[in-house]
Amino acid sequence: MSCESGAVDGTGRMSENRCAEKYGPSALIAGGSGADAAAFARALAVRGVNVALLARRREGS
Question: Number of structural domains, the chain?
Fold first, then answer.
């Protein structure tokens, strides 16, 4: 995800809603039971993207 590229708000990061505008309002993240997927989902959510995690296991690894 390159939502950090292109300093559009003067801080070197895209504004929260800019990421959703560029990539779309929603993201489906496969491998959702892993810690990396959870961190990625949080990063997208902070930028205004709705997220859904898909996992085969019920608990994180």
Answer: 1
